[in-house]
UniProtKB/TrEMBL annotation:
Gene3D superfamilies: 1.20.1050.10. It comes from the Eukaryota. Residues 1-97 form the GST C-terminal domain. This is Glutathione S-transferase Z2-like. InterPro entries: Glutathione-S-Trfase_C-like, Glutathione-S-Trfase_C_sf.
Length: 97
């Protein structure tokens, strides 16, 4: 439970922050966590916030995900979920590209 809270607080504090620093902080926090998603084998709020941040970091800010193997693994897990795919900006008719 404490890991859930730490990740939720970190994500909330870093939204809008320098993307490289944000990704580095998340990688350090999650690198030893051996689960399918950020805080366990089920999707939690941390994942709901984390997945779009990874997408933005890779597409808009051209962050090289090879520097963040844990986050990259999480992102690969998110991409296969229909809910995450359906919520992508490309699938939203009112999203500005």
């Amino acid at each position: 439970m404490q890991n859930h809270l730490a990740i939720d607080l970190l994500v909330a504090a870093c939204v809008g922050a320098d993307q490289g620093a944000f990704m580095s902080a998340l990688e350090m926090l999650l690198k030893d966590f051996a689960s399918r998603y950020a805080t366990g084998d089920e999707v939690y709020m941390a994942d709901v916030f984390l997945a779009p941040q990874i997408v933005v970091s890779t597409s808009r800010f051209n962050i090289n995900m090879s520097k963040f193997p844990t986050l990259n693994r999480l992102y690969e897990s998110y991409k296969i979920l229909p809910e995450f795919e359906a919520s992508s900006p490309e699938r939203q008719p009112d999203a500005v590209h």
